[in-house]
């Protein structure tokens, strides 16, 4: 079963609560006293609310009948009401209207602090049913006072003061707008007068052509001058065509007077204006046809042929005479035609010059005319706005935009928390605070000791302090377990050579087992006691909490390798724990066959022979790997270190092997030289010191 499923220690909890009863009981009493004191000395407040409706001004917006144009305008107006309701002058006027609570006549009442306090905490304007401003035209004016009657009076007084303040603000705003619009109207009138005078000068200069000048400024239609010019052009074209026909007929008649035969070959269009000539032309043609027919039948001396020829000659002579008379009669007609064309040309020229002169001033006249129209519109708008502002100013003193829908309504009970609930809540808060303080300072059910810092109480001891430590009972009185335990220093300790956990403390000296001085060493043969191993479950929990602590006192470079820990109790008088050198291999070692000896008996070499024999292959592999890495690293070091490494490599195991003592027994057992074994012991001697590990591993 894991720690999370362990039952709650109810017995420990009840014992702790009983032990710390003054602490949590005192907090309950203290908080309860505070709650009772606050409930006794605080004042109760009743709330009074009055519904109000707000509308917009009807002046200038009669089609909406006082309704707001948009929701944004309504929201802005209601927020303005909220700000004005909490205004200093409004609240002060309302308080002066209802007077002090005690009924005294104090001319300095109300004070500034009282007015500000009531305005900030006891007067409010809210929307109905918890909505926001702008959804409806109805708002609620809410006030608070120490008595229901005073709350209702204060609500009514605030409403009257607010309505009066709104009328005053409207009047001030309307008066300022009226003054501004009056100045705008006067300025518009002055500008209009200046532009009108300039336009008047142009119209006087072109008085006869004013209609044409105005017509040129219009975007549609033609003026009288333009129409007259068009008619003159049409008449001129007709007169010129008629004159051309008369001149052509005159030329034909002049030629026909000399040779009538030319009249016969001319068309009838030219002679249509002279019927007599046309009939004589037809008679001559008929006589010539008859003579031609008779000449084909008769000879020249035949009477009928001769009669026909004489008739033809007679008609030709009359035609010549008639033609001469017509030519003489056409001279006045030609003169009239030429005069008419000339007059029309002169008229067309005069009209063209007149229109050209109007075109030169058309742009200026059009600009002045449009400016006059614009100034006139501005003046009309200013007059309209001024009229509306004057109407608003006149109605601001008699009309309220904020109307009440009913009288103030007072709450049935005081608002806020009652004294009993406040007392119970204070006692509950004190109880919770006291219990929290108790469980903060009280030790847990499994806590056997504390650290020397406040951080150890809150977050627990540090990781380096949580390992196994030397029991106080294992150290004799008067012996300092933190004394110098370096090799070669005599120690005043009679600690028997027992199998105990590896001491782990905050200092490197705390991690060294105590040694016996040479004078107090037991006569037993040298022994090396292996440190006890944790169970598989303990190792699994250690691996889950700390990956580098898979086994007791494991090396950081190879957490899964359980090292050997020994303590020397022989003639040197010093004992130091030792571990095997760290290795990069990850394969878990085989479990030792031997079990640790009892704490009462002294371990010997024979006791640990099976352990050493089982770990001999792994120690050989570690030693070979250390030698290989050392040889590869010394090639890149300085010459001095390279020389030292070569000297160490050239030494044979027989030269470095100890001749007697406990190291000789170990060497004979696992075939390791004394320097290598000491180095392996030094590497794992201090598993908590990272600097030592880093230095030895490198």
From TrEMBL:
Q: Where is this region: Disordered?
A: 444-698
Where does the chain cross the membrane?
21-41
Give residue spans, biased composition: Low complexity.
576-588
Pro residues compositional bias, start-end: 515-529
Give start-end positions of Polar residues composition bias. Answer: 486-495, 542-558, 595-607
List each coiled-coil range. 178-205
**Keywords, A to Z?**
Coiled coil, Membrane, Transmembrane, Transmembrane helix
The protein in question is named: Chain length determinant protein
Organism from which the protein derives: Roseimaritima multifibrata
Q: What broad taxonomic lineage does this protein's source fall under? A: Bacteria, Pseudomonadati, Planctomycetota, Planctomycetia, Pirellulales
């Amino acid at each position: 079963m894991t720690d999370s499923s362990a039952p709650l220690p109810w017995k420990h909890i009840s014992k702790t609560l009983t032990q710390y009863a003054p602490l949590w009981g005192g907090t309950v009493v203290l908080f309860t006293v505070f709650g009772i004191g606050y409930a006794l000395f605080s004042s109760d407040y009743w709330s009074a609310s009055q519904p109000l409706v707000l509308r917009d001004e009807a002046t200038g917006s009669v089609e909406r009948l006082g309704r707001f144009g948009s929701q944004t305008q309504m929201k802005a107006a209601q927020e303005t009401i909220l700000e004005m309701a909490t205004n200093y002058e409004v609240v002060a006027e309302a308080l002066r209207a209802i007077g002090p609570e005690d009924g005294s006549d104090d001319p300095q009442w109300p004070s500034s602090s009282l007015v500000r306090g009531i305005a900030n905490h006891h007067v409010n304007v809210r929307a109905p049913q918890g909505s926001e401003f702008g959804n409806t035209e109805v708002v609620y004016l809410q006030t608070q006072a120490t008595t229901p009657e005073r709350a209702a009076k204060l609500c009514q007084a605030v409403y009257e003061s607010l309505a009066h303040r709104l009328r005053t603000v409207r009047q001030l705003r309307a008066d300022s707008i009226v003054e501004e619009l009056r100045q705008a109207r006067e300025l518009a009138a002055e500008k209009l007068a200046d532009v009108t005078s300039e336009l008047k000068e142009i119209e006087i200069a072109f008085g006869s052509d004013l209609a044409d000048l105005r017509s040129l400024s219009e975007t549609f239609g033609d003026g009288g001058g333009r129409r007259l010019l068009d008619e003159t052009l049409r008449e001129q074209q007709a007169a010129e065509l008629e004159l051309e026909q008369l001149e052509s007929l005159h030329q034909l008649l002049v030629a026909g007077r000399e040779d009538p035969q030319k009249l016969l070959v001319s068309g009838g269009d030219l002679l249509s204006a002279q019927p007599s000539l046309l009939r004589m032309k037809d008679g001559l043609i008929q006589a010539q046809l008859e003579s031609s027919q008779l000449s084909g039948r008769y000879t020249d001396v035949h009477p009928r042929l001769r009669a026909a020829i004489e008739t033809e000659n007679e008609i030709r002579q009359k035609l010549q005479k008639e033609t001469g008379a017509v030519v003489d009669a056409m001279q006045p007609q030609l003169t009239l035609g030429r005069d008419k064309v000339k007059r029309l040309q002169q008229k067309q020229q005069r009209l063209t010059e007149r229109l050209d002169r109007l075109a030169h001033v058309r742009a200026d006249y059009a600009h002045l005319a449009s400016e006059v129209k614009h100034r006139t519109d501005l003046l009309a708008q200013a007059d309209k706005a001024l009229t509306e502002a004057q109407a608003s100013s006149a109605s601001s003193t008699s009309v309220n935009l904020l109307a009440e829908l009913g009288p103030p309504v007072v709450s049935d009970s005081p608002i806020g928390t009652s004294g009993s609930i406040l007392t119970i809540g204070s006692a509950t808060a004190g109880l919770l605070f006291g219990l929290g303080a108790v469980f903060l300072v009280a030790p847990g059910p499994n806590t056997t000791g504390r650290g020397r810092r406040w951080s150890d109480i809150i977050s627990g001891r540090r990781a380096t302090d949580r390992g196994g430590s030397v029991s106080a009972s294992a150290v004799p009185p008067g012996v300092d377990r933190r004394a110098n335990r370096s090799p070669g220093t005599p120690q005043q300790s009679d600690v028997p050579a027992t199998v105990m956990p590896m001491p782990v403390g905050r200092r490197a000296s705390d991690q060294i087992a105590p040694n016996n001085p040479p004078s107090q060493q037991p006569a037993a043969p040298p022994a090396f006691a292996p440190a006890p191993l944790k169970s598989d479950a303990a190792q699994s929990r250690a691996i889950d909490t700390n990956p580098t602590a898979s086994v007791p006192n494991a090396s950081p470079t190879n957490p899964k390798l359980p090292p050997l820990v020994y303590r020397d109790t022989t003639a040197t008088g010093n004992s130091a724990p030792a571990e095997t050198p760290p290795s990069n291999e990850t394969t878990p070692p085989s479990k030792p066959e031997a079990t640790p000896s009892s704490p009462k008996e002294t371990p010997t070499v024979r006791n640990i022979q099976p352990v050493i024999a089982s770990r001999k292959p792994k120690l050989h592999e570690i030693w070979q790997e250390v030698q290989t890495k050392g040889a590869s690293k010394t090639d890149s070091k300085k010459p001095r270190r390279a020389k030292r490494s070569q000297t160490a490599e050239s030494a044979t195991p027989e030269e470095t092997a100890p001749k007697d003592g406990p190291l000789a027994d170990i060497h004979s057992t696992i075939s390791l030289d004394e320097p290598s074994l000491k180095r392996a012991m030094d590497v794992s001697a201090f598993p908590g010191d990272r600097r030592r590990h880093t230095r030895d591993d490198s």
